[in-house]
Write a structure and sequence with these properties.
four-stranded parallel β-sheet, globular, PIF1_helicase
Protein backbone atom coordinates (compact mmCIF):
# COMPACT_ATOMS: atom_id res chain seq x y z
CA UNK A 1 0.00 0.00 0.00
CA UNK A 2 1.36 3.42 -1.03
CA UNK A 3 0.53 6.46 1.08
CA UNK A 4 1.53 10.14 1.14
CA UNK A 5 2.25 11.82 4.47
CA UNK A 6 3.06 15.50 4.22
CA UNK A 7 5.92 15.62 1.67
CA UNK A 8 7.11 12.04 2.18
CA UNK A 9 5.85 8.91 0.41
CA UNK A 10 5.62 5.56 2.17
CA UNK A 11 4.97 2.06 0.87
CA UNK A 12 3.66 -0.41 3.45
CA UNK A 13 4.01 -4.20 3.24
CA UNK A 14 2.09 -6.23 5.85
CA UNK A 15 2.53 -9.86 7.01
CA UNK A 16 6.12 -9.79 5.81
CA UNK A 17 6.76 -13.41 6.80
CA UNK A 18 4.57 -14.60 3.90
CA UNK A 19 6.20 -12.30 1.33
CA UNK A 20 8.80 -14.21 -0.72
CA UNK A 21 12.10 -12.51 -1.55
CA UNK A 22 11.13 -12.63 -5.21
CA UNK A 23 8.10 -10.41 -4.50
CA UNK A 24 10.30 -7.89 -2.71
CA UNK A 25 12.32 -7.68 -5.95
CA UNK A 26 9.14 -7.16 -7.97
CA UNK A 27 8.03 -4.34 -5.66
CA UNK A 28 11.45 -2.72 -6.03
CA UNK A 29 11.18 -2.90 -9.82
CA UNK A 30 7.61 -1.59 -9.95
CA UNK A 31 8.35 1.36 -7.68
CA UNK A 32 11.34 2.28 -9.82
CA UNK A 33 9.10 2.30 -12.88
CA UNK A 34 6.37 4.21 -11.08
CA UNK A 35 8.76 6.97 -9.96
CA UNK A 36 10.92 6.80 -13.10
CA UNK A 37 13.95 6.49 -10.83
CA UNK A 38 17.00 4.24 -10.55
CA UNK A 39 16.99 4.60 -6.77
CA UNK A 40 16.16 1.47 -4.81
CA UNK A 41 12.37 1.22 -4.38
CA UNK A 42 12.11 4.36 -6.51
CA UNK A 43 13.31 6.46 -3.59
CA UNK A 44 10.11 5.73 -1.67
CA UNK A 45 10.31 4.89 2.04
CA UNK A 46 9.33 1.23 2.49
CA UNK A 47 8.01 -0.03 5.82
CA UNK A 48 7.66 -3.77 6.49
CA UNK A 49 5.31 -5.05 9.18
CA UNK A 50 4.86 -8.48 10.67
CA UNK A 51 6.50 -11.30 12.58
CA UNK A 52 9.13 -13.42 10.85
CA UNK A 53 8.13 -16.27 13.17
CA UNK A 54 4.75 -16.47 11.44
CA UNK A 55 4.12 -18.76 8.48
CA UNK A 56 6.66 -18.65 5.63
CA UNK A 57 5.68 -18.10 1.97
CA UNK A 58 3.82 -20.94 0.31
CA UNK A 59 6.17 -20.57 -2.66
CA UNK A 60 9.53 -18.87 -3.08
CA UNK A 61 12.35 -18.01 -0.70
CA UNK A 62 11.66 -16.41 2.67
CA UNK A 63 11.94 -12.65 2.45
CA UNK A 64 15.34 -12.60 4.18
CA UNK A 65 16.87 -15.32 1.95
CA UNK A 66 18.24 -14.03 -1.34
CA UNK A 67 18.14 -16.82 -3.98
CA UNK A 68 21.56 -17.83 -5.31
CA UNK A 69 20.53 -16.90 -8.85
CA UNK A 70 20.13 -13.26 -7.73
CA UNK A 71 23.65 -12.91 -6.36
CA UNK A 72 25.56 -10.52 -6.62
CA UNK A 73 22.59 -8.12 -6.97
CA UNK A 74 21.84 -5.90 -3.99
CA UNK A 75 20.45 -7.94 -1.09
CA UNK A 76 17.24 -5.94 -0.67
CA UNK A 77 16.31 -7.35 2.72
CA UNK A 78 19.65 -6.27 4.18
CA UNK A 79 18.73 -2.64 3.46
CA UNK A 80 16.16 -2.67 6.27
CA UNK A 81 16.71 -2.16 9.98
CA UNK A 82 14.70 -3.65 12.82
CA UNK A 83 12.33 -1.83 15.14
CA UNK A 84 11.00 -4.52 17.48
CA UNK A 85 7.76 -4.04 19.37
CA UNK A 86 7.79 -5.96 22.64
CA UNK A 87 4.38 -5.24 24.19
CA UNK A 88 1.73 -7.87 23.44
CA UNK A 89 -1.49 -6.01 22.67
CA UNK A 90 -3.70 -8.89 21.49
CA UNK A 91 -3.36 -10.98 24.67
CA UNK A 92 -2.72 -8.10 27.05
CA UNK A 93 -3.75 -8.98 30.60
CA UNK A 94 -3.41 -12.75 30.14
CA UNK A 95 0.19 -13.19 31.26
CA UNK A 96 -0.07 -16.99 31.39
CA UNK A 97 -1.17 -17.21 27.77
CA UNK A 98 1.55 -14.74 26.73
CA UNK A 99 4.18 -16.93 28.41
CA UNK A 100 2.93 -20.02 26.56
CA UNK A 101 2.87 -18.21 23.21
CA UNK A 102 6.34 -16.73 23.68
CA UNK A 103 7.74 -20.18 24.45
CA UNK A 104 5.96 -21.81 21.50
CA UNK A 105 7.07 -19.02 19.17
CA UNK A 106 10.76 -19.90 19.63
CA UNK A 107 10.37 -23.66 20.10
CA UNK A 108 10.95 -23.71 23.86
CA UNK A 109 7.76 -25.20 25.29
CA UNK A 110 8.24 -26.72 28.73
CA UNK A 111 6.16 -29.22 30.68
CA UNK A 112 4.26 -26.46 32.51
CA UNK A 113 3.29 -24.94 29.17
CA UNK A 114 2.06 -28.26 27.82
CA UNK A 115 0.00 -28.80 30.98
CA UNK A 116 -1.78 -25.49 30.33
CA UNK A 117 -2.56 -26.45 26.73
CA UNK A 118 -3.67 -29.97 27.68
CA UNK A 119 -6.27 -28.49 30.03
CA UNK A 120 -7.83 -26.70 27.05
CA UNK A 121 -8.42 -29.95 25.11
CA UNK A 122 -12.13 -30.77 25.02
CA UNK A 123 -14.90 -31.94 22.71
CA UNK A 124 -17.61 -29.86 24.37
CA UNK A 125 -19.31 -27.28 22.15
CA UNK A 126 -21.44 -25.16 24.45
CA UNK A 127 -22.23 -21.45 24.82
CA UNK A 128 -19.63 -19.33 23.01
CA UNK A 129 -17.93 -22.48 21.70
CA UNK A 130 -21.03 -23.82 19.95
CA UNK A 131 -20.82 -24.69 16.26
CA UNK A 132 -22.94 -21.63 15.44
CA UNK A 133 -20.59 -19.19 17.17
CA UNK A 134 -16.94 -20.02 17.79
CA UNK A 135 -14.57 -20.20 14.84
CA UNK A 136 -12.80 -23.51 14.16
CA UNK A 137 -9.20 -23.14 12.98
CA UNK A 138 -7.75 -26.07 11.02
CA UNK A 139 -4.40 -26.76 9.33
CA UNK A 140 -5.93 -27.91 6.02
CA UNK A 141 -8.56 -26.71 3.55
CA UNK A 142 -10.15 -30.17 3.57
CA UNK A 143 -11.07 -29.96 7.26
CA UNK A 144 -12.28 -26.38 6.84
CA UNK A 145 -14.60 -27.33 3.99
CA UNK A 146 -15.94 -30.33 5.90
CA UNK A 147 -16.78 -28.24 8.97
CA UNK A 148 -18.32 -25.36 7.02
CA UNK A 149 -20.55 -27.79 5.12
CA UNK A 150 -21.52 -29.54 8.36
CA UNK A 151 -22.60 -26.25 9.96
CA UNK A 152 -24.47 -25.26 6.80
CA UNK A 153 -26.32 -28.60 6.97
CA UNK A 154 -27.08 -27.87 10.63
CA UNK A 155 -28.83 -24.63 9.67
CA UNK A 156 -30.67 -26.28 6.77
CA UNK A 157 -32.01 -28.87 9.18
CA UNK A 158 -33.46 -25.97 11.21
CA UNK A 159 -35.31 -24.81 8.05
CA UNK A 160 -33.26 -21.63 7.83
CA UNK A 161 -33.96 -19.64 4.65
CA UNK A 162 -30.73 -20.01 2.65
CA UNK A 163 -29.95 -18.35 -0.68
CA UNK A 164 -27.56 -19.77 -3.26
CA UNK A 165 -25.57 -17.03 -4.97
CA UNK A 166 -23.81 -17.74 -8.24
CA UNK A 167 -21.01 -15.51 -9.51
CA UNK A 168 -21.48 -13.53 -12.71
CA UNK A 169 -18.65 -14.57 -15.06
CA UNK A 170 -17.80 -13.24 -18.47
CA UNK A 171 -14.94 -13.81 -20.87
CA UNK A 172 -13.04 -10.57 -21.37
CA UNK A 173 -11.07 -11.57 -24.47
CA UNK A 174 -13.85 -12.49 -26.85
CA UNK A 175 -17.47 -13.56 -27.32
CA UNK A 176 -18.78 -15.67 -24.47
CA UNK A 177 -21.73 -17.21 -26.29
CA UNK A 178 -22.18 -20.93 -25.67
CA UNK A 179 -19.11 -21.10 -23.41
CA UNK A 180 -19.09 -23.84 -20.79
CA UNK A 181 -17.53 -21.93 -17.90
CA UNK A 182 -17.33 -25.09 -15.82
CA UNK A 183 -14.66 -26.37 -18.21
CA UNK A 184 -12.47 -23.25 -18.30
CA UNK A 185 -12.85 -21.84 -14.78
CA UNK A 186 -10.35 -22.88 -12.08
CA UNK A 187 -11.95 -24.60 -9.10
CA UNK A 188 -9.33 -23.33 -6.66
CA UNK A 189 -10.57 -20.04 -5.16
CA UNK A 190 -6.96 -18.89 -4.89
CA UNK A 191 -6.86 -18.93 -8.70
CA UNK A 192 -10.12 -16.98 -9.11
CA UNK A 193 -8.99 -13.76 -7.40
CA UNK A 194 -10.34 -15.13 -4.08
CA UNK A 195 -13.95 -14.85 -5.33
CA UNK A 196 -16.04 -18.05 -4.99
CA UNK A 197 -18.06 -19.52 -7.87
CA UNK A 198 -21.05 -20.25 -5.63
CA UNK A 199 -21.99 -19.13 -2.17
CA UNK A 200 -24.82 -20.11 0.18
CA UNK A 201 -25.73 -17.30 2.56
CA UNK A 202 -28.43 -16.35 5.03
CA UNK A 203 -29.07 -13.84 7.78
CA UNK A 204 -26.93 -15.01 10.69
CA UNK A 205 -24.25 -16.68 8.56
CA UNK A 206 -20.67 -16.24 9.73
CA UNK A 207 -18.41 -15.00 6.92
CA UNK A 208 -14.89 -13.75 6.32
CA UNK A 209 -13.75 -11.08 3.88
CA UNK A 210 -11.43 -12.38 1.16
CA UNK A 211 -10.40 -8.98 -0.19
CA UNK A 212 -9.30 -5.57 1.09
CA UNK A 213 -12.38 -3.36 0.78
CA UNK A 214 -11.55 -0.28 2.86
CA UNK A 215 -8.40 -0.39 4.95
CA UNK A 216 -9.27 2.83 6.79
CA UNK A 217 -12.44 1.17 8.15
CA UNK A 218 -10.77 -2.14 9.01
CA UNK A 219 -12.49 -3.92 6.11
CA UNK A 220 -9.51 -6.03 5.14
CA UNK A 221 -8.86 -9.57 4.01
CA UNK A 222 -9.38 -11.85 7.02
CA UNK A 223 -11.90 -9.84 9.06
CA UNK A 224 -14.87 -11.91 10.28
CA UNK A 225 -18.49 -10.98 10.91
CA UNK A 226 -22.14 -12.06 10.79
CA UNK A 227 -24.61 -11.24 8.00
CA UNK A 228 -27.48 -9.19 9.44
CA UNK A 229 -29.23 -8.19 6.20
CA UNK A 230 -29.32 -9.23 2.54
CA UNK A 231 -30.03 -6.37 0.11
CA UNK A 232 -31.28 -7.53 -3.29
CA UNK A 233 -30.82 -5.55 -6.53
CA UNK A 234 -33.54 -3.16 -7.73
CA UNK A 235 -35.18 -3.03 -4.28
CA UNK A 236 -36.41 -6.61 -4.56
CA UNK A 237 -37.48 -8.34 -1.38
CA UNK A 238 -35.98 -11.70 -2.30
CA UNK A 239 -33.86 -13.41 -4.90
CA UNK A 240 -35.61 -13.39 -8.30
CA UNK A 241 -32.96 -14.85 -10.60
CA UNK A 242 -30.18 -17.36 -9.99
CA UNK A 243 -27.69 -14.74 -11.20
CA UNK A 244 -28.78 -12.10 -8.67
CA UNK A 245 -25.79 -11.04 -6.58
CA UNK A 246 -26.93 -8.98 -3.57
CA UNK A 247 -25.18 -6.57 -1.28
CA UNK A 248 -25.05 -7.57 2.37
CA UNK A 249 -24.87 -5.82 5.69
CA UNK A 250 -22.33 -7.42 8.02
CA UNK A 251 -21.70 -6.90 11.73
CA UNK A 252 -17.92 -7.03 12.15
CA UNK A 253 -18.06 -6.57 15.92
CA UNK A 254 -15.50 -4.00 17.02
CA UNK A 255 -15.10 -2.80 13.41
CA UNK A 256 -18.82 -1.94 13.24
CA UNK A 257 -21.64 -2.71 10.79
CA UNK A 258 -20.88 -2.17 7.10
CA UNK A 259 -22.49 -2.81 3.73
CA UNK A 260 -20.38 -5.07 1.53
CA UNK A 261 -21.16 -4.88 -2.17
CA UNK A 262 -20.21 -7.24 -5.00
CA UNK A 263 -16.82 -6.56 -6.59
CA UNK A 264 -15.35 -7.51 -9.97
CA UNK A 265 -11.94 -9.09 -10.47
CA UNK A 266 -10.16 -10.80 -13.34
CA UNK A 267 -8.21 -14.04 -13.49
CA UNK A 268 -6.80 -16.42 -16.08
CA UNK A 269 -9.08 -19.10 -17.49
CA UNK A 270 -7.90 -22.67 -17.99
CA UNK A 271 -6.94 -24.14 -21.38
CA UNK A 272 -5.58 -20.79 -22.59
CA UNK A 273 -9.17 -19.61 -22.99
CA UNK A 274 -8.32 -16.04 -22.03
CA UNK A 275 -9.28 -13.84 -19.10
CA UNK A 276 -12.43 -14.20 -17.02
CA UNK A 277 -13.99 -11.32 -15.14
CA UNK A 278 -16.00 -12.38 -12.11
CA UNK A 279 -18.53 -10.28 -10.19
CA UNK A 280 -19.25 -11.68 -6.76
CA UNK A 281 -19.41 -10.94 -3.05
CA UNK A 282 -15.84 -10.98 -1.63
CA UNK A 283 -16.70 -13.37 1.20
CA UNK A 284 -16.76 -17.06 2.09
CA UNK A 285 -18.47 -18.92 4.92
CA UNK A 286 -16.29 -18.87 8.00
CA UNK A 287 -17.40 -21.13 10.80
CA UNK A 288 -13.98 -22.58 10.08
CA UNK A 289 -10.81 -21.24 8.49
CA UNK A 290 -7.26 -22.39 7.80
CA UNK A 291 -4.38 -21.12 9.88
CA UNK A 292 -2.92 -19.46 6.78
CA UNK A 293 -6.06 -17.39 6.15
CA UNK A 294 -6.23 -16.36 9.83
CA UNK A 295 -2.73 -14.91 9.93
CA UNK A 296 -3.83 -11.26 10.27
CA UNK A 297 -7.03 -11.92 12.26
CA UNK A 298 -8.03 -11.69 15.92
CA UNK A 299 -10.94 -13.55 17.53
CA UNK A 300 -12.42 -13.71 21.02
CA UNK A 301 -13.29 -17.42 20.85
CA UNK A 302 -11.88 -20.26 18.77
CA UNK A 303 -11.68 -24.03 18.68
CA UNK A 304 -8.28 -25.01 17.27
CA UNK A 305 -7.04 -28.26 15.75
CA UNK A 306 -3.41 -28.86 16.80
CA UNK A 307 -3.39 -32.49 15.74
CA UNK A 308 -1.35 -34.59 13.34
CA UNK A 309 -2.40 -32.53 10.29
CA UNK A 310 -0.15 -29.62 11.29
CA UNK A 311 2.43 -29.41 8.50
CA UNK A 312 4.25 -26.05 8.63
CA UNK A 313 6.71 -24.51 11.05
CA UNK A 314 4.98 -21.86 13.13
CA UNK A 315 1.48 -23.13 12.30
CA UNK A 316 0.55 -23.92 15.91
CA UNK A 317 1.91 -20.59 17.14
CA UNK A 318 -0.04 -18.58 14.56
CA UNK A 319 -3.26 -20.52 15.25
CA UNK A 320 -3.12 -20.08 19.03
CA UNK A 321 -2.05 -16.44 18.92
CA UNK A 322 -5.20 -15.43 17.01
CA UNK A 323 -7.18 -15.77 20.26
CA UNK A 324 -7.22 -12.97 22.83
CA UNK A 325 -7.09 -15.14 25.96
CA UNK A 326 -6.99 -18.67 27.33
CA UNK A 327 -10.64 -18.24 28.36
CA UNK A 328 -11.52 -17.93 24.67
CA UNK A 329 -9.59 -21.05 23.66
CA UNK A 330 -10.57 -24.66 23.18
CA UNK A 331 -8.33 -27.26 21.56
CA UNK A 332 -10.04 -29.95 19.52
CA UNK A 333 -7.01 -32.20 19.12
CA UNK A 334 -3.42 -31.87 20.38
CA UNK A 335 -0.38 -33.70 19.02
CA UNK A 336 2.39 -32.79 21.49
CA UNK A 337 5.11 -33.99 19.11
CA UNK A 338 4.11 -31.32 16.58
CA UNK A 339 4.79 -28.61 19.17
CA UNK A 340 8.00 -29.99 20.67
CA UNK A 341 9.63 -32.01 17.86
CA UNK A 342 12.77 -31.28 15.84
CA UNK A 343 11.21 -28.27 14.07
CA UNK A 344 8.64 -26.71 16.42
CA UNK A 345 9.37 -23.26 15.02
CA UNK A 346 10.97 -21.58 12.01
CA UNK A 347 14.65 -21.87 12.94
CA UNK A 348 15.83 -19.87 9.92
CA UNK A 349 13.56 -16.98 10.89
CA UNK A 350 14.71 -17.23 14.51
CA UNK A 351 18.35 -16.98 13.39
CA UNK A 352 17.52 -13.96 11.23
CA UNK A 353 15.80 -12.24 14.16
CA UNK A 354 18.95 -12.76 16.24
CA UNK A 355 21.06 -11.28 13.42
CA UNK A 356 18.82 -8.23 13.17
CA UNK A 357 18.95 -7.68 16.93
CA UNK A 358 22.75 -7.82 16.90
CA UNK A 359 23.09 -4.94 14.41
CA UNK A 360 24.22 -1.80 16.29
Amino acid sequence: MRQQWKDTEFFFIDEISMVPYEMLCMINSLLKQLKNSNDLFGGINVLLFGDLMHLPPVRGKQVFNQPDRMIPATHLWRLFTLIELTQNMRQQGDTTFIEVLNALRVGELRERHMDILMKKVTTEANAEFSVEKALRIYPTNKKVDEHNQAVLAHFKAKNTKIYKIRAQDRLVDGPDNNIDYDKITPTDINKTAALPRELEIFVGAKVILRSNIDISKGLVNGVIGFIIEIIWPYFRRAQTHATDVPSIRIDFGRDGIHIIEPISKQFQAKRNAGTIERRMLPIVLSWASTVHKMQSSTVNYAVIDLGSDLFAEGQAYVALSRVRSLDGLQIQELDCAKLTGKKPCNNDALAEMERLRSIP
